[in-house]
Amino acid sequence: MLEQFEYKNPTYPLSWLQMQPFQPLPRSILILGFAAFFLIGLEQSLFGPAFSALNGRFALEPGAVGSVVTSHFLGVTLGTLVSGVILSRLRVRGVALLSSVACGVGLLLVGIAPSWILALLGAFLSGLGFGGISGGFGTLFSSRGRGGSAALSLINAFWGVGSIVGPLLANRLLERGLNLYFGSAAALFGGLVV
What is 36-81 written as a DSSP string? Predict the structure, then answer.
C-alpha cells in the first residue's frame, strides 16, 4: 500500500546525498551550531514583547512599531540568500563569526538607538546575521549524508527552545529598559564570537 506513494525514478532511485555515508561533524561545530540556533530563536522572539517599550521610546503611531519586525525579516531573507555565496568563500566558522557579530551589533543598536531609523537599521542588521547563521549552519548540517536530515531537525529544535526562552526572559529584562534587554542578547552573541 505504501509503495504507491514512494518516489520512483529509474534513473536516480535515491538522491546523491541520500546515498552518501553519514559524515559526523566535529563536536566544536555541533556545539557552535546548537548555540547559534538557540540564540537566533531567542533573537526572533525578542521583538514582540518589546513593542510597548519601543513605542514608548520613539512615540510611534500604533501600527508603526511592527515595522521593526518587517525590517528584521528583510534582513533574515537577504542574509539567507547571500549565506550560500559567503559559505563558498569562507569556512563555517567565518560565517558564524560574521553572522554573530551582525546579530550582536544589530541588537545592541536596537537597544541604544536614539532614533527609530537607527532601531530599524539595527533590526535589519540583526536579521542579516540571523539569515547567515540559519543558511550557513542549515546547509552544513543538512549536507552530512544520510544523517543530515536528523542533524537539521536537531539544530532546529534548539531554535525552538530559544524561541520559548526569549519571551520567558522578556518580562524580567524589559522592566530594566531596552538597553539591557537587547544588550543582554547582544552579549550572548558576543559569547559565540569568543
Answer: HHHHHHHHHTTTGGGHHHHHHHHT--TTGGGHHHHHHHHHHHHHHH
Contact call for residues 148 and 25 (beta carbons, < 8 A)? no
| DSSP code for 194 | -
In the chain, the number of structural domains is 1
Q: Would you call 20 helix, strand, or coil by DSSP?
A: coil
Report pTM: 0.85
Q: Is 111 helix (H, G, I), strand (E, B) or coil?
A: helix
Query: Is 87 among the domain residues?
Result: yes
Domain containing 182 equals: 34-40+67-194
Mean pLDDT, residues 46-50:
94
| Nearest partner of 109 among 101, 119, 99, judged by Cα | 119
